[in-house]
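Support request from a user on the community tier.

User writes: "When I paste my structure tokens into the form, the page sometimes reloads and wipes my input. The last time it worked, I copied everything first. Here is what I submitted, just in case something in the input itself triggers the reload:"
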């Protein structure tokens, strides 16, 4: 009933004020631009394009402000069932128009406002820091501290406060008609960024060069000992053979003195060679053992010299 009754008054107001609603503005260019938007809004309203009409009415008011346009905005918001928009437009209309508003229009507007007050909720928003931008459903509604509560329709709403460099604060609320809600938003300090850990610094470090003892003398000693041992065995066998030969000659009748002396000389030579070979083998074995012990690697790992080593600290 209220919405349908509002259709005729808005057309009447538009018709009556289109020519003079913006006449008080001193800037002629602004007056012309405002009147163009106003006329377009009236046409869209008559065609029931209320969304287009509200945009044009608001543009007309912003270009060439006149309190009379606010009544048209309020009526258009009623057609859109945007009750919070309507009551705010009517309140602003009554505030700016004051005594200039005719008594009949004032009474009609007060009736609208009384009815709308039962269809909207009022949300008082406080922010812990001044100068924060307050947004209602992602639309800015002012800076903190807000001078008056936000008027919202029934339903789900999101209220946000932003102020650089603080982290934004957001609260979602569900309101019903007639609610009066307090919403406190706390803007928190931004946590300091975690410092990056610097990469370790590579610093050349000279490491001691540990030389592994040469094993060549050990192998030479082993070879000498092996040769001497083989010679001792060979000459030992030859000595036994010479000794056996001497014994056989001694038992032979008619043995000449020269043959006996030759066999004896051979035995002595082979025995001497055998003794020398045995002595050489013993000396070689002892020398090889000493070389093996003195050149045997330690059980600890041998560190090779490297070009660089990792050194340094982490920087925070």
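"...and here is what came back when it finally went through:"
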């Amino acid at each position: 009933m209220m919405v349908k009754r509002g259709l005729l008054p808005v057309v009447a107001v538009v018709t009556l004020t289109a020519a003079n609603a913006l006449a008080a503005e001193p800037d002629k260019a602004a007056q012309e631009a405002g009147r163009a938007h106003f006329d377009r809004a009236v046409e869209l309203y008559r065609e029931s394009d209320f969304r287009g009409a509200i945009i044009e009415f608001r543009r007309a008011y912003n270009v060439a402000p006149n309190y009379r346009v606010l009544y048209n905005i309020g009526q258009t918001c009623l057609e859109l069932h945007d009750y919070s928009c309507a009551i705010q437009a009517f309140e602003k209309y009554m505030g700016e128009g004051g005594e200039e508003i005719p008594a009949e229009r004032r009474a009609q507007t007060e009736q609208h406002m009384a009815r709308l007050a039962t269809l909207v909720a009022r949300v008082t928003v406080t922010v812990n820091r001044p100068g924060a931008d307050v947004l209602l459903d992602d639309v800015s509604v002012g800076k903190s501290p807000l001078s008056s509560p936000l008027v919202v329709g029934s339903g789900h709403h999101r209220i946000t406060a932003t102020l650089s460099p603080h982290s934004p604060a957001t609260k979602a609320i569900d309101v019903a008609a007639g609610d009066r809600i307090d919403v406190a938003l706390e803007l928190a300090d931004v946590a300091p960024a975690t410092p990056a850990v610097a990469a370790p610094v590579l610093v050349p470090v000279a490491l001691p060069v540990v030389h592994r003892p040469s094993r060549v003398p050990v192998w030479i000693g082993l070879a000498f000992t092996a040769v001497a041992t083989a010679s001792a065995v060979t000459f030992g066998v030859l000595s036994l053979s010479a000794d056996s030969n001497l014994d056989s000659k001694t038992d032979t009748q008619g043995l000449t003195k020269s043959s006996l002396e030759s066999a004896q000389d051979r035995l002595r030579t082979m025995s001497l060679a055998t003794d020398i070979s045995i002595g050489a083998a013993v000396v070689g074995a002892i020398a090889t053992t000493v070389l093996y012990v003195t050149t045997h690697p330690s059980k600890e790992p041998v560190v090779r010299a490297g070009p660089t080593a990792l050194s340094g600290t982490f920087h925070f």
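Agent notes: The reload is a front-end session timeout and is unrelated to the input. The helical segments are 2-17, 28-46, 50-63, 67-79, 83-97, 103-117, 216-250, 257-295. The first strand starts at residue 120 and ends at 127. Escalated to web team.
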